[in-house]
Specification:
Layout: E1 3-11, H1 23-26, H2 41-52, H3 65-74, H4 83-95, E2 99-103, E3 112-115, E4 121-123, E5 130-132, E6 137-141, E7 144-148, E8 164-172, H5 176-192, E9 196-199, E10 203-204
Parallel strand pairs: 3-10
Antiparallel strand pairs: 1-8, 1-9, 2-8, 3-6, 4-5, 6-7
Length: about 210
């Protein structure tokens, strides 16, 4: 597996539904926001190549989440969701790296990173729509896959009551410094917003 990941958990002092995103964070949900990282075509291509490794085709509605964010921001449709997701989206938008964020109050350990086998699907939104994640590197919890670089599972998404999250920044070979910078900036933003971050160890399958 040529996916490289940076993982950490965040603990918030209150449920995130009681912690509106500060204006400085919301302002980062823009294509022209000042950031320590900048999108590039090389990174976009490398992320797509990483997702293809197990046979997944990152096109159409199955493209990387980071590409969706660029399109949404360009159309003025990237709005604030909650503190945890806004920080995730701001870093993904600027870095070009997809990011998963799951609620640790809803997901169940143990956690691991592996390529999803054939026939693996899950619901990714409140409308009950499903995504086929076969061949895609995914975050798994005790119940199955719950996040990846395309769409996270509805069952482990954050809610207004979320106080602890697990973030996975999806990187790729050849761009390890960008992954480290993105994760560091992500943790810096969360800390500024009163979230306390800590390293989180994940087992990563070789293929």
């Amino acid at each position: 597996m040529n996916a490289k990941v940076a993982c950490f958990e965040t603990t918030f002092p209150l449920p995130i539904g009681e912690m509106p995103s500060p204006p400085w964070l919301v302002s980062l949900l823009s294509l022209d926001a000042e950031a320590p990282l900048a999108r590039s075509e090389d990174v976009r291509a490398a992320v797509r190549d990483m997702l293809r490794q197990g046979g997944y085709k990152p096109t159409g509605r199955g493209k990387p989440a980071s590409e969706y964010l660029v399109r949404a921001a360009g159309e003025g449709q990237l709005a604030s969701i909650n503190l945890a997701v806004d920080a995730c989206n701001a870093v993904s938008l600027a870095s070009g790296l997809p990011i998963s964020v799951v609620c640790l109050g809803r997901a169940r350990p143990p956690f691991r990173i592996a390529v999803a086998p054939e026939g693996t699907r899950y619901v990714f939104n409140a409308a009950g729509q499903e995504i086929d994640v076969a061949g895609l590197p995914c975050l798994f919890d005790a119940e199955g896959p719950c996040g990846n670089a395309v769409k996270d599972s509805q069952r482990t998404k954050t809610t207004p009551g979320t106080r602890r999250t697990l973030s996975v920044v999806w990187g790729c070979e050849g761009h390890e410094p960008r992954l480290a910078r993105a994760a560091a900036w992500y943790r810096e933003l969360l800390g500024r917003a009163l979230g306390q971050t800590a390293d989180f160890e994940l087992a990563v399958a070789s293929r």
